[in-house]
Amino acid sequence: MKPAAWIGxxxxxxxxxxxxxxxSPTEKPTLLLLTSLPILFGEGFTxxxxxxxxxxxxxxxxxxxxxxxxxxxxxxGHDLLLMAHPRAQPAEALVxxxxxxxxxxxxxxxxxxxxxxxxxxxxxx
Length: 125
Description:
Radius of gyration: 15 Å
Shape: flat
Helix content: 25-40%
């Protein structure tokens, strides 16, 4: 399955949960986003381009908040996290993430082994 399909599945799963998690019809729940994929800025990494399709879909249901690391400070007070091909996390952050998930938070982790977007990627051979 292509990486875009996996992200589409994650977005669909999260979109389905957004209705039940809202405390009011006008309030969007916060979704933490931890990713190394070109979701926030696209592959061109410019500020003047339209949102990527994945980000636009997520923002229909959520207030997307990007984070750099899944540590206790970043996760505190939040219930939703989308990890789509995240960078390696420090050991302390993994311990915090484990505790956060065990407290019945919702996490959707992407099983994508590598990104195959239009940008050239380097891979070890």
